[in-house]
Amino acid sequence: MLTILTITLPIFGLIALGYGLCGLKVFNAGDIGVLGKFVMLVALPALLFHATASRSFSSLVDPSFLILLTLAAICTQLITWTLLRLRGVGPGRRAIGTMGSATPNSAFLSFAIMQFVFPEEAASVLAMNMLVESFMLQPVGLTMIASASSQTHGFSPLRRIGSIALSVLKRPFILAILFGTVLSILAVPLPTGLVNLLELLARAASPLALFFIGGSLYGLSLKGNLGLAGFISACKLLLHPTVAFLLLTIAGLLALPLPPGNLYPALILSTAMPVFGIFPIIAQGSGHEGAAALAVTISTALAFVTLTVLLALLV
Q: pLDDT band at residue 196, thresholds of 50, 70 and 90?
């Protein structure tokens, strides 16, 4: 357990540092926003482009990992949606709950942990996680939230889906994955100078991302539906990884292809991450921003315990 704490303590310590320095007014919301923008627009795309372009395509993408990760998310969303429906929760809160229950914080937290425990697979795991989240989880959640909003009545579902798909394709880290994959398939080598630049930028991604998590948590409003936020956090931290483990077990019993080597525990670990950090931003306009912010805060705080225990079991 002490070995595991040497992994989780530095990571959550950096998150706490970001929170504490914002609380002491050393950094303000604007400063934290700039850090987050740098990570999302520069450091993370550089990391993903380098990771995809410098590897063979066969070592970059594992079909069984992608399929099981997607199935785990879909099953978790269906279970969450059903439980909320049985409780009589309205469509708006149901949409928020369904999206938050299966969309992990891969870009800012998961990658940092993977670098410690599975360094060789960390970049490819991040790329596959981001593809599933960007092309499946977030579009489904955004569509549900938009459908539940009275402001979007009159818009055709196809137009709404098309708009969401276009916004996904415009994201810098998605473009980085796509361009890097093309170079990987074509086996085009990167110039040494470009590789060195990309590596420098990639090294900045994890520490800045963790500091950003802490700083952004300080600025979140803690006024919201505590019951819904707690439910989302429980589904994300407990239900999602449990579903992933059950699917892996079933696939093994049926002699179906399984993620090889470290990708097997990495899949479970990927699903055990807390709610993704931009959840409150995505929830804006739904009337449930407070619940989304609370879910991010609660799940991130509790993740120190749940991830420490899970790492002790997996590593």
A: very high
Using DSSP's 3-state secondary structure scheme, residue 24 falls into coil
137/118 Cα distance (integer angstroms): 24
Contacts of 75 (CB under 8 A, 6+ apart): 243, 247
pLDDT at 179 over 70: yes
- The string of DSSP codes covering 186-230 is HTPPPPHHHHHHHHHHHHHHHHHHHHHHHHHHHTS---S-HHHHH
Rounded Cα gap, residues 96 and 132, in angstroms: 18
Q: What is the mean pLDDT of residues 137-164?
A: 70
| Torsion from C-alpha of 224, 77, 250, 57, nearest 10 degrees | -100
Closest CA to 290 of 144, 96, 59, 106: 96
Locate 175 and state its tokens: 């473009």
Q: How confident is the model at residue 290 (pLDDT cuts 50, 70, 90)?
A: confident
Q: How far apart are CA 233 and CA 235, in angstroms?
A: 5
Helices in the chain by DSSP H: which ranges? 2-23, 29-38, 44-53, 57-60, 63-86, 91-102, 111-117, 122-132, 138-148, 157-169, 172-186, 192-218, 226-234, 240-253, 263-271, 279-282, 289-314
Cα–Cα distance for residue pair 98/83, rounded to 1 Å: 10
Asked if residue 20 lies in contact with residue 129, where contact means CB atoms within 8 angstroms, the answer is no
Total-model pTM: 0.87
Question: What is the DSSP code (8-state) at residue 255?
Answer: T
Q: Which residues pair with 275 in a beta bridge?
A: 104
- Is the per-residue pLDDT at 253 higher than 80? yes
100 in Cβ contact with 27 (< 8 Å): no
Instruction: Give the integer Cα–Cα distance in Å for 109 and 274.
Output: 8
CA distances from 89 to 75, 82, 222 (A): 19, 10, 21
